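ping. complex inputs:
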Amino acid sequence: MQRKIEVCLTPALIDLYAIENSIVVVIDILRATSSIVYGIDNGAQAIIPVAQVEECLNYADKGYLLAAERNGEVVEGYDFGNSPFSYTAEKVAGKTIVLTTTNGTKALHLARKRASQVVIGAFLNLEALCAWLKTQEKDVLLLCAGWKDQFNLEDTIFAGAVVNQLRSGFTHYDDASVAAEDLYLLAKDDLRAYIHKSSHSHRMVALNIEEDVKFCLQTNICQTIPVLEGDQLVALKTGL
Amino acid sequence: MQRKIEVCLTPALIDLYAIENSIVVVIDILRATSSIVYGIDNGAQAIIPVAQVEECLNYADKGYLLAAERNGEVVEGYDFGNSPFSYTAEKVAGKTIVLTTTNGTKALHLARKRASQVVIGAFLNLEALCAWLKTQEKDVLLLCAGWKDQFNLEDTIFAGAVVNQLRSGFTHYDDASVAAEDLYLLAKDDLRAYIHKSSHSHRMVALNIEEDVKFCLQTNICQTIPVLEGDQLVALKTGL
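pong. complex structure:
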């Protein structure tokens, strides 16, 4: 079967891709998709991504946890933001979380408009994600959330890690896949050192969340693949 | 002085950059900006970039050469397209050329709307371009023309070559600069082999223009920097 893998380097470019029959993997390593993977893996019942901070309030008084991050910080008055340490089993098991973030939830909303299926990727579930993607007879678009529509290193490197695992099973790939894979191969022996070349990581240091960065760069501590069903992210039943 | 260098990976992202006080370097290695550099270096009086094929016709009967390329091929009825071999001294010295290409002239038109100054870069004039940029007290945006608004390898690698020469003199750079420079460092020992990983190079092989590719990957055979003055590209007087 002819299959195509492509990397969309920022959400601003998504209209260039025909994704009606594709699986779109949304990637926002620091920190939205890492925390979503971790939260669902820790037994959160669902995570509802919303684009605007104000939309979270529509879900108040329903017993949901409300999570909002803007520019790397928790929005005042919300339960938490997108630090993975807020998504432990103790805090989220059995709960539904309404979440809005600067970049990740925006990418999700763009993808869901047209994609055949939308799943969530992070280093935390890299192996599980790739194992499942290999079994699907679909084209794959790796959608980097970036930073305010700009390219960023950490999402691109993760996309490259996925390309690196999947490419042999795909007949077509684009230039962005080649670049992402090569950057991943440069970075993989010390992801943290490489990510520190990133402007976003300077923001992270300024925000004093170096522990979050370290956490998000762990590989394969989660087996769960969050998938969008209706307006909710839930655990995909892979049958693997 | 605080100076910033950034890489805009495709023209579709240009609105994200504040370029009102910047020098924008337009890059379309295969083949528009390579041919523009070569043509001006060979004594073409001016090259007038236009966005649409039909616009070229407005310049008919003025004694100009009319050049039009779409999807890698010369448009029927035009003098030539964007092969560098059409821009030799014999063919263009003293002449004015009206040129439209699939990607390069579009990027030029987007840049000129807002940029402080627009110049043309290619491997052919890499050293001359970098030497001049170092003497300017301006921010620099390296604008990759890409392929129909998508990322491509060859333009990004050239941007990385410029970053590699300039970075020590700049205080700020973005993630795309880091990535472009690292890809350039991977590619530099054999640019052609690396470019062959590119989907665009497959198009080039299909178009039977491998000699053009080889030509465009030569470094520093031209000393000229084309600059946009009004609606014309002419040789920049650098005083270097």
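The CA atoms of residues 63 and 85 of chain B lie 20 Å apart.
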